[in-house]
Amino acid sequence: MGDFLSLNSISHWDSSKKLMMEGRRYKEEIDTGNLALNMLEKPIKELQEQQKNHKVKQYKPKKVFILGNHCAWVDKYVEQNPQLEGHIDLVEDLKIHKRGWDVIPYKGYYECNNILFTHVPIAANQQPVSGKYALHSALALSAKSVVFAHTHRLEQTNFKRHGTDELIQGLTVGCFFEGEDEYAEGGANHYWRGICMLNIWRQGRFDLTTISLENLIDGI
Length: 220
Hints:
By secondary structure, this protein is of the alpha/beta class. It has helices spanning about 20, 25-55, 70-80, 90-95, 135-140, 215-220, and strands at about 65, 100-105, 110, 115, 145-150, 155-160, 165-175, 195-200, 205-210.
């Protein structure tokens, strides 16, 4: 759902803060990202190998990697440091295409069964929807149900389009990381961390099941 890595090593917000930037390395973040993807994909690969050995149809899920605003920092960094063009590329460095994922660019949408998935909807002023009413703002921009992640909150609502009886749904899916980035400055107490599973039971409509990160950690 976007921002798979924080990419603090190339943060344009902190670039002038030399002490804060000390020790941050792009390669270390990429190495961690590849390790995380390997862990995420391991059960699928093991299942596929078992199915192959038993000569049964392999499970091949569609995998979609949505880029977020932190991912877009790489492009901004290369623009500011053109000597790095061709040397750093988030999608290539994480081997996303090689791993078999479809890539959705930042500000782009992936549509599945009349539901739009994006890192964050963009308002008319070309800025990401934000604030207390971000979810309602996102639905006001859309004629279809929308799922996004940028706010780090877990929120769900229904919205009836003006002039129609059609109900659309909105969902922000929280986040999935421990700790707290410096930019949050104590404001992360409203974050929800975990996994959201959607059961799409009709075009544009879904039911939601959640598993919190705390629950996952306690079960390990």
